[in-house]
Specification:
The protein is an alpha+beta fold. The chain has 2 domains: 3-99, AF2212/PG0164-like (Elongation Factor Tu (Ef-tu), domain 3, Beta Barrel); 110-182, no CATH class. Helices cover 37% and strands 23% of the residues. It is built from 7 helices and 9 strands; from the N terminus they run H-E-E-E-H-E-E-E-H-E-H-H-H-H-E-E. The strands form 2 sheets. A 7-stranded antiparallel β-sheet has the order 1-7-4-5-6-3-2. Strand 2 (30-32) and strand 3 form a beta hairpin.
Length: 193
Amino acid sequence: MDAGNRNNLALCTSILNKLMSPIRFTATPFTIGSTTILRLPKDASVKLPSRGMSMVEGTINGSGFVIPLEPDGRGSHWFKVEKAMRASAGKPMTLAIELVEQWSEPAVPADIKKGLQTVPQAQKLWKEITPMARWDWIRWIRSTNNPDTRKKRIIVACSKLRSGMRRPCCFNRSMCTEPTVSKNGVLIDPTQD
């Protein structure tokens, strides 16, 4: 994305944030396997501009955070409750969130880093694309439990980046892509755990 488009995106996000008051809600975290998550109530999630991933800042019981909200595959969002958040916040949790202008950088898994290092043109474009686009590539690659499929997706991603593609195509951004807490792109209910 060139500087002009980045400035336009930042301006649009800034205007949207000014029009949008903080989203306030109360929710109780639950555990799926060994992961503690908090699902936004639908009436809170619907106030976000996208059913896909959104980057927000906010407070949980008064403690600040910046975090990506993952789609749950049902039109709402969720996020992983980190240990530090669990320690400082009781149950239920009271939250206030707002969109952020600048997306945080995703943690790039070692296998993806290694794949990018083997294709210099892909690595070059990876550094040029937006953090949101990097999140999309990582989410697309990780949205499988099959290690062979994951390896194939890394190869395909590097090939597409090398050819100039900035985002994965044919990727449903509203599905849950964290395989440890989802089935078929939908967040697992705690009763299914």
